[in-house]
Amino acid sequence: xxxxGAAELLNLLELEPLDKDLFRGVGAGGETPTRIYGGQVxxxxxxxxxxxxxxxRLCHSLHAYFIRPGNPDMPVIYDVDRARDGGSFTTRRxxxxxxxxxxxNLSSSFHIEESGWEHQHDMPDVPSPDDLMSRRDYHLxxxxxxxxxxxxxxxxxxxxxxxxxxxxxxxxxxxxxxxxHVWLRIPAAAGQxxxxxxxxxxxxxxxxxxxxxxxxxxxxxxxxxxxTASLDHAMWFHGEIALEDWHLYSMDAPFAGGARGFNxxxxxxxxxxxxxxxxQEGLMRPIQxxxx
Length: 292
Prior knowledge:
It is a single chain. The chain has a single domain (3-114, 127-286), classed as Beta Barrel (Porin), CATH 2.40.160.210. The chain is 17% helix and 36% strand. The protein has helices at residues 3-12, 38-50, 135-140, 151-155, 194-204, 211-214, and strands at residues 16-19, 22-25, 57-66, 76-85, 89-98, 101-112, 161-164, 180-185, 226-237, 247-257, 260-269, 274-286. Helix 2 packs antiparallel against helix 5 (194-204). The longest helix has 13 residues, at 38-50.
């Protein structure tokens, strides 16, 4: 984790108000230099929705469709539609726009705090983050084997610290289980509002999720054998989040086919409390070699 990267992310998620229910976000600063990282657009869209919602209502679910890749060199306009303000629930629809065209649609629902019956599945039994190497250090040890075109991406400061339970070789990954466990945290989340905790987790939730569907096929992005992109993304928030502490992102991919992979995840506190569920379908299209 890098303090500069964390400060950059927090600035990235502070939107500029343009008019009533209209906001502007910065395009640059995501996880990829060629298109805006999907988690960034989701997080900024959720941040825009939160600007129009009473403070006593937190997001309990969001559903988003990625429509076009975002240009990181341009700002993104977020247009919020106040779909409904009810007695217990508030609903918002957000359209993210670049060049007059939609790049993402997001629907989100917010709920007052209520009590009710409770249960959850147990957190998977995995090694502690204290016993694992950071994802960054793991890749730095293998930097000489990673294609040079990706070196800047590996070396770039990142706001979240991540530790993979079963990291795969970045150049020649073996075919393995689709189950994918990653510990994550961002110390800069300390003192942030519950709303910002949701926004930060929305940002992180897109990282590595689609990779779960690549694992059984011995694939990753460094090989340049597959075209990948998030197609849709859904989140359900179950409880209080404090991302300055370690959280386990437990992912799997029960299906792949038709050039798409279906991925899902549960996010747990270190004490085993389930705070978020995630689901996503992503493009994983084989890249065909051009014939001469």
